[in-house]
Amino acid sequence: MWRITINSCYANNWLCFFTSWTNIAVGFYMALIPMFLGYLCYGFGLSKISASMATTITLLEPVVATILAMLIVGEYFSIIGWIGMLLIFICLIMVTLSSLAKN
After folding, report:
1. Is the dihedral of CA 69, 72, 78, 84 positive or negative?
2. What's the 3-state SS for the chain?
3. Could you give the CA distance from residue 85 to residue 70 in angstroms, rounded to a whole number?
């Protein structure tokens, strides 16, 4: 018989997933809804735009995640984080303007 205790849960983090039905349900939810549907939408979007535009848009992911963490979770970010987000925006604007100038 498999018996999972608190000590084994700390020793082997993957075992914590199986300690309750709630954990299992949350794990399957996280695999199916955000991951599967997110990649499905991402793949659909890739079929509609060019690869270079998709790469440029994908570079915004850390900025969007940071803003969502601030709004939803209440995270606090240092000035270095804000400077990093500003640099990402500046680089993306430069890449977008250079590709528009070529066309």
Report:
1. positive
2. CCCCCHHHHHHCHHHHHHCCHHHHHHHHHHHHHHHHHHHHHHHHHHHHCCHHHHHHHHCCHHHHHHHHHHHHHCCCCCHHHHHHHHHHHHHHHHHHHHHHHHC
3. 13
How far is Cα 75 from Cα 66, in angstroms, rounded to an integer?
A: 8
Instruction: Give me the residue label for tokens 């735009």.
Output: 49
Q: Could you report the per-residue pLDDT of 11-63, keeping only the tens digit for each?
A: 556 666 667 788 788 888 888 888 888 888 888 988 888 887 888 888 888 89
Tokens of 90: 């500046």
Q: What is the pTM for the complete model shown?
A: 0.57
